[in-house]
Each structure stands twice: as C-alpha cells, then as structure tokens.
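An instance as discussed:

___
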Amino acid sequence: MGIFEPPSQLVILQTVHWVLGHRTDSALPGYLMLGARMPTNDLSLMPAEALAQLGALLARAQKALNTVLEPDHLYIGRYGHMAGHSLHFHIIPVCGWVKQRFFGDPRYRVLRNFDQPSAAGATDGAELTLYVWREFCENPVPPPISGPPIHDVVERLKILMT
C-alpha cells in the first residue's frame, strides 16, 4: 500500500502525518483529498499525533474553502476501500452553480421525483456527491465550471492554509 502523494502542483499543505491536495482526477475546483502519509487504510493504526491533527486539518480546509469558494454545502467523508490506497478523506465543496447544473440535468431526475411539489428542489448529499463523482471526476467532458479554475483555487488555499 502506498502513501497518499498528489502531484506537487496540487499539494496545498503537508504535515508529518497528512497531505492535503486537490483531487487529481476532478474538474471541480476545490475538491480536496486529505490523505495519510503512512501506508495504512485503518484509522485506528494512525499515531495519536496524527489523529489529533485530523480534526484541525479538516476544520482549516473547510474554513479556507468557505473563504475561497463560499460553497452552499461542504461534504467531508471517507469512501475508499480499494486495495493499494492509504487512508484518505474527500472534501467536496458544493456551490450553488453545481446544484443548478444537477437540477438542470434530466439524467439525474430519476434519483428523486422532482415533479412532486414537496420534492421540488430538494436533494441530499448522496445525490450531489454522485453527481460530482460522475460528472466532474469520471466524465471525460465535464460540465463547464463557474468561478475560479483549479490552479487559482489551489494557490489561494496554499496561502490561506500556511
């Protein structure tokens, strides 16, 4: 199992135990990954110092993303379980323009019955996360973005988090 090592141009912050970087295969500006710098996928095997840093790093990333992108929602989660990947957390900003594209994409209408008045405009984090993954990470032609490009977001986050 390798350690989490994004390309240097996408690294925002490194500590002894963690590296924060922009997700390499995401076209969504601000989609970050916080990964362990030791070869484990088990949180209980991390040193106490690393565990103490985890909450503070997630909070700092959220504060910085709120400053740079002002997202409507910020999702933080651990999803991966593929062999060969070290422990990592996804930090996904969902700005208003992302939600507008989601609601405007007829392919995602099947997730909820948007024709019912009680559900109109309603969604949850799982649906928006799926949309972000499918459209901004897996789609070879992602939707157009609004706001600053990835490079600018990474540079602004570096300044805010150092």
